[in-house]
Specification:
Elements: H1 6-18, E1 55-61, E2 67-73, H2 77-85, E3 88-89, H3 92-95, E4 107-113, E5 119-124, E6 130-133, E7 136-139, H4 143-155
Antiparallel strand pairs: 1-2, 1-4, 3-7, 4-5, 6-7
Helix pairs in contact: 2-4
């Protein structure tokens, strides 16, 4: 966790405890917004992420680098990961011919923490309807992982910035 004044550290510990995040969970932070969206030379097979993740952090970037919302989960993370992995694979050669608009919507990123301390970041590109992580791409209803995340946040009594389906 970055160095914070004591009152902020206490608030951060409380926030993580309410989210079900334990001391053994890796500390996750919001990555910077993605400025350019390059496609890799080759695509990889396999899942977007492993279901063994122990915590997840959703970061929503408003305009530019401003983070307009963040929420952390310390339980039921596998539900969100299964929603990511259930999307259809997308081949890189198919994407090279896509005309995706310049990023105009909010950018969503989900950071995942694993028991060994490793972390992964999955982007949810609402403009191109892609869910990329490194060389692994999924396509289709990319809001499904967000809906799962939101349902868990709401079930825990938290607030989510938009109503279901309002992405």
């Amino acid at each position: 966790m970055p160095e914070l004044p004591e009152s902020d550290r206490v608030a951060e510990v409380g926030r993580r405890a309410r989210a079900g995040v334990t001391a053994a969970s890796p500390v996750l932070d919001c990555p910077p917004a993605v400025v350019e969206r390059p496609f890799p030379a080759v695509e990889a097979d396999g899942p977007v992420a492993d279901e063994s993740a122990v915590n997840a952090l959703l970061c929503v970037h408003g305009g530019g680098t401003h983070i307009s919302y963040r929420a952390e989960l310390g339980h039921d993370v596998a539900t969100v990961v299964r929603a990511m992995n259930s999307l259809a694979p997308k081949e890189v050669h198919e994407m090279r011919d896509m005309a995706c608009p310049v990023p105009a919507r909010r950018e969503h990123q989900i950071g995942l923490g694993y028991p060994d301390g490793s972390r992964r970041v999955v982007r949810i590109d609402m403009n191109c309807l892609l869910l990329p992580r490194d060389e692994v791409f999924r396509f289709g209803d990319v809001t499904r992982p967000l809906e799962e995340f939101a349902a868990i946040v709401r079930a825990d009594g938290g607030e989510f910035p938009y109503a279901p389906g309002d992405w």
